[in-house]
Amino acid sequence: MHALIIGGGIGGLAAAIALHRHGWQVRVLEQAPAFTEVGAGLSIQPNALRALEALGLGDQVRAHALADAPVGIRRADGTWLIRNDIDRLTRRHGPWLTLHRADLLAILHQALPPESLETGVQVHQVRPDGTVTHTDGTCTADVVVGADGVHSATRRSLWPDAPPPRYVGYTTWRMIAAARPVEGSVETWGQGQRFGYAPMADGRVYCYAMANATQGTTIGMADLRRRFAGWHHPIPALLDTGSPDAVLQHDTYELPDLDTYVAGRVALLGDAAHAMTPNLGQGAGQALEDAVVLARSLEAARLGDTPVAEALRAYDRARRPRTQMIARRSRRLGEMVHRASTPFAVARDTAMRITPSSVVARSMTPVLSWTA
To answer: Is the pTM here over 0.85, yes or no?
Structure first.
């Protein structure tokens, strides 16, 4: 049977690998001229690592990554709000890894037949019967996977009345700083803005920042350095080593809940189905989980025991409640961090300082406990 995957990001490639390993002939259409990712790191949380292991890629990812469970959360002056018990955290949930997104994409590419990957193809229309119209013509597949991101053409085709992605009020920057020793993966909270950093295997440091801003505002490195100049070490030093040309800025969007992720022979996956704020670091992880569950749901269809549409409905039942729950949690966390009120920030920080690390570890269970 033939599967057509629209979108060659992490979710699309993972879906192609999962289906390929279940015996499907796969074809991936990517609208960009090349499969590339620059300037960004990625945290592979325990649930995401289990998904990669289910794809047979766990060892390869570990070889390119640094084991790096989150150390905790600090205030801008350096005071610890939460300091995790790393041993307790990893015993309870499993390992965290940090690597460059480009390294993960390279691992995913190498797991697929080169002839299955096509770039420079823009999709115009998708129909429920599996027919896809694109820049190179029209094709039909037994199943179509829309993994084409927050502004998905697949979703616009088949869910024309669904609400569009909404801007959540803050923008996000990502960069890779020069190699320097840091204590581990740390996030720092201010009022309406925050900064995070995590060491990578080659010694460089992945950094990200978020701040309340009007949609469409462009803020460069000079302003970032001014914003965080008074924050604790090593934040100013990390920003000083970053190249202005290497900073990626993206406004932060989330997708309102859809009633279903499937239509006929078509399924949405990853951000196309459930784009969420990055506050829990679960965007890529949920796409990887989607890919594993999708392939397993479709196994009965490949064997001829179940119609494709019925198998996809099973995928929807398995994935929609979980992904929408995680999106809600991520939204609430962002609202707590980005509320620009001094009295609220004082109360928030006080509550966090008195919360035991064991409670923090348990609170992560609904998100991190997924297994393949």
So the answer is: yes
